[in-house]
Amino acid sequence: MIELTDVSKSYNRGKVKAVDGLTLTVKPGEIFGFLGPNGAGKTTTIKMLVGLLRPDAGRIVVEGFDVAKDPLKAKQATTYVPDFPAIYERLTGLEYLNFIGDVYGVPKAERLERIGKWLEIFELASVVTNPIQSYSHGMKQKIVLTAALLPGPRVMVLDEPLVGLDPRAAHQLKEMFREHCDQGKTLFFSTHIMEVAEKLCDRIGIIHKGRLVACGTMEELRTLDKTESSLEGIFLELTDK
Amino acid sequence: MSKVATVIRAGLRANFGLAVLKHRLFKEKKDRWLVALFGLAAIGVLPTLYGVVLLIKAGYLMLQPMGQERALLSLGLLAGQLLILLFGLYYVISAFYFSRDLETLIPLPLRPYEVMLSKFAIITINEYLTVAAIVLPVVITFGIMAKGGLGFWVNAVLVYAALPVIPLAVVSVLVVAMMRFINVSRKKDILILVGSIVLIVASLALQVGLGRSRGPQDPAAVTAFFTSPDSLLNTVGSRFPPSIWATKAIAGGFSAEGLANLALLLGVSLVFFAGMIVLAERLFYRGLVGLAETTGKRRRLTRDEMSRRVSSGRRAVAAVFGREWKIMNRTPIFLLNGILVVIFFPALFVLMATMDPGRGGSGGGGDTMFLLKVMTSANPLVVILAAALFMTICGSLSGTSSSTFSREGAQFWISRVIPVAPREQAAAKFLHSYLVAMLGVVTASVVGALVLHLKPAQLAAAAGLALAAGVLLTAVGMIIDLARPLLDWTNPQKAIKQNLNVLLALLADVGIMTAFFFGVRALVRAKLAANVVLGVVFVSLAALAALSYRILLRFADKRYPEIE
Q1: For residue B399, which of B319, B320, B508 has the smallest C-alpha distance?
Q2: A interface test, pick of B298, B413, B415 with most A CB neighbours within 10 Å
Q3: For B114-120, what is the mean pLDDT?
Q4: What ipTM did this prediction achieve?
């Protein structure tokens, strides 16, 4: 479960308001899609969620733990996939997975099972002992995703997770999203791909100029748009200001 | 031409972060304390600079009656050019072949030489800054002492501008040719490592060579040598003639000799520069394309192999330590400036001390060795403290602790999101940095035992002091880096070699050691027994070590969440 209450963040000494009074709840078992134009505040929100940025105001609670007051417990419940896979290029894929397993305290049996499963799905099994610097962009993205899945987190936060993935991997990732949430876990992700959000998400939030301009199921969003068109139409309508 | 100028301007702005600095200083109004700190550092350096100037003045006054004063200028210029050569290799390889903006530049409609020129300009400016500390005090003091006229100063400016061109062009040509003709591009890590070690050894050999060519030995020949004007200049400069031309150009001013030598220096520089450009146009891209490719074997692990290689769970501190260790050792620039420095420095010391032929025949070793032997047979307190200082310097010379957070660079987000308390991460990083420092202390101890023949008790006492000092200096270095980690680098060189934090930590280390020096002097003057002095030094070092370590852990808890 993720709860954001009246969260704000500005840059440049308050001159640029990136996120403005954002209030949002993502329930357990829910896939939540976070949409918005470039510079709308998506990545800032995500970074505040995982503790990479500190909000100027407001409160963020993940699985009952306040991110500001109880950061370690909140982090223990969350894994994060950034929009660009900047990871330790000098480690091998397996060393990186071991590192993540160690810091999250994943038992060996679970590690073996999850690493085996995701390496097969992402077709990384034959390169996992190679240095990450020899991986392509897509392979790096896949190893970051594998690492994020390894602790079996209650909450997953992903920033543009489908960028750089081939169609097969993207398809498998979407299946994983569903599987993850069917176990009562929470998934929060940002995307620019409207079809994915429309088909996959239980609820969708649209952020524009730092403010949440719409939030709800696809059905609820359609009522906001006079033409009751596709998500793309709704998005264009709401962010054309 | 304007295209070249644009590329050079963009390269300089990106490399020196001028736009970012301007934004931070004037728009975000951050980092203004840096300006004050630089001012303070400049004031702090003044006494040292004054000492250097006095030394140069003394040298001038000593050499001038013999007509040999120009050798001083030549020595300064030669030292500057050697330094350019030494740093040049690092700079050239990393700027020409491993800076990430090459991926942006190559697809642009630019000629290979234009891209290389933009990189060359960055290196040249870096070199001006690097050699300023050595060359400028010599040239300026010489100019004042020799009452140099307009010709002196104009030529000095031109010579300074041309100074890096020949050595850098030589290094560039060597590197570009090597990358093109030897298929080493896929083994770029090994190339940097081997290249650097070869260059360090070569410069050492050159130094030994220079040391051996000190001129004639028998008294008559010595007299003849010194009565012939500029004989010393020619001897000093014979290893690298451009330093002779540079000296004569500056000292000669607008005289025929001055202008002829200036023309010679500028002309030869131009020829080297042009040669480099021609070569760049033909070879630069051919060595460059495909460099980003790294290959790895494809092999699937068996179930048993996977089970063996998947960790059964280490504590978080051990995991972070393991990560630090692996990344440091597998990144050549980090390895060279971290672990290899602490091994090289004591080895270098031994070489310099034993190969100095000044007092040849005294059982091997020269002036330095003689001085050291005199020192080590003196007051045991001095012996222990000097050995401890040597060990401390050897252990703390590397930038390992003061770049520990900076080295994470763009990957720092991982440290921020993992569920490991910042103090635990700092503790793991401390262990890693301290281990490197200990390696320096151990190497220095070996030198102390085998070369300086220190007694075991003296070694043990010195090592005890150095290990306590190591904790303090490691923690201070880490605190400095944590206060303002340099995370936005694209070239690992910037994280450690061009990181201001490493310099600041070095200054802090010098400050701490100086404070201890004055403290010990006061204790000795108070006529305290040697054991008491040692005890006081050890207890105060240990107390400061414990305090600084605690401050580091608390600071980590405070600072980690703030770094955005």
Answers
A1: B508
A2: B413
A3: 87
A4: 0.92
